[in-house]
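Mycothione reductase: structure, please.
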Amino acid sequence: MRHFDLVIIGSGSGNSILDDRFADWDVAIVEKGIGPNDAYGGTCLNVGCIPTKMFVHTADVAAAPSGGARLGVDLDLRGVRWTDIRDRIFGRIDAIASGGRRYRAEDNPNVTLHEGVARFTGVKRLVVDTADRAEEITADRIVVAAGGRPAIPDIPGLDKVRYHTSDTVMRLPELPRRMIIMGTGFVGAEFAHVFSTLGVEVTMIGRSGRVLRSEDVDISARFTELAGQRWDLRLNRKEIAVEQDGELVRLHLEGPEGAEVVEAEALLIAVGRVPNTDLIDAAAGGLELTEGGKIKVDATQRTSVDGVWALGDISSDYELKHVANHEMRVVQHNLLHPEKPIESDHRFVPHAVFSAPQIASVGLTEQEAQQRGIEHVISVQEYAGIAYGWAMEDTTGFAKLLADPGTGRLLGAHIIGPQAPTLLQPLIQAMQFGLDARTMARGQYWIHPGMPELIENALLNLPLD
Ligand SMILES: Cc1cc2nc3c(=O)[nH]c(=O)nc-3n(C[C@H](O)[C@H](O)[C@H](O)COP(=O)(O)OP(=O)(O)OC[C@H]3O[C@@H](n4cnc5c(N)ncnc54)[C@H](O)[C@@H]3O)c2cc1C
Ligand SMILES: NC(=O)c1ccc[n+]([C@@H]2O[C@H](COP(=O)([O-])OP(=O)(O)OC[C@H]3O[C@@H](n4cnc5c(N)ncnc54)[C@H](O)[C@@H]3O)[C@@H](O)[C@H]2O)c1
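Here you go.
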């Protein structure tokens, strides 16, 4: 049995903890490998944020000709070369992942890379199962950064069907003619945009009546309306059974009009993620879980076991890379300076959905403000009402702000439309640093006629004294 100063489980955000300040620590990283090629480096790099956005940008380029005609520019899309797109993207990703693995395995003398599945057998005691053996390790400190994986719903017949998740769908050998996407969240909305723009007929299945239903009510309503124009959108549906018929997947549904069947050459399951607490046997390690099944941590990312920290998707309320990275920096500090621990700041966590149109959001939605009885005023500014929106002939995008009527401070900001994540960033800054809407609007120049005038006008529209 080997004892370490520090064991890190998971090479996603966990991999970034180690820098020169840990050079004299004896460290083990345990990584089981992720995705179809058992890659190093976690979800975001290999099967998450980064490749998806490389596909989204490609789809946005492929979508440009269809938007040209209304500006008087007639363009044709001559074709998309799926295997070239896929191999270009993973040609970059796979090289970065294997480079990251090689760096830890070969260039860090103080780091031992264990390639296998780590599971707790006791408090600060682990077994690592590799292909040919099981090795026991112990440590003074352990960081659990083991993330999560796609959830697979319990639908009769699913075990006999060829289906994809976000882990596999980006490496399809060829584009299918049709694709059923189960789930109307982030993953469903982003892949529906990618595949439909590249020429696949998309059918999207949702249990509720809205797409992206956790967004602000107006944002979700607008996105649902637009999604219904682009995809065969089937909402308020329940999956009854699924079957494989040669190359076809057939899904039996129950909906408002009764029973119905949809079929396609590919099925993508995008119904959320489950934390990998079972894989690590969190209970055997004495780690308390939350009601949602994640590892319970305090504000300093400490678990219920002294000397064990957790971060990212396995413990966080937010399954977002910027949050995992923030929590990683907190854990990093607290490992190095246990006498002066710092806390994670989850007050103003933004997110973006890179679909079409794009969505970006921070803070309270209108429905959350109402449910919590928080006094607020609202403003809405459409892209169609600003000069750059005229240039783009945008007719569907808008920014919606919620502010405290007393202080003028922003409570929430939600944007649907071109460059939404970029436009949201100054509003995140204002919320984080306590800048009130009036000062933000009138205390600086806004480049004319730039897209940020959307934000300037939304701020000025707030009914504040
Ligand atoms: C399709 C998709 C798109 C996304 N896009 C975005 C985006 O645009 N923006 C954004 O902010 N977020 C996005 N996310 C979310 C983001 O990827 C995650 O929040 C983030 O990667 C979580 O990081 P982590 O370090 O907690 O976990 P991970 O990166 O998942 O790392 C955990 C690692 O632990 C390993 N592991 C698990 N169990 C064990 C074990 N028992 N032993 C050894 N190793 C183990 C896994 O193999 C994995 O490599 C996306 C997610 C998906 C699925
Ligand atoms: N741009 C980004 O930041 C980005 C992109 C992709 C993923 N992510 C992260 O990954 C997480 C997982 O994404 P996701 O889209 O899988 O989850 P999600 O939670 O965003 O959406 C899943 C949806 O599927 C629904 N659902 C559950 N069971 C269903 C069923 N049987 N049939 C139909 N619908 C069902 C849920 O009600 C929910 O609306 C996200 O919550 C997000 O944090 C982020």
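Notes: The mean pLDDT is 98.
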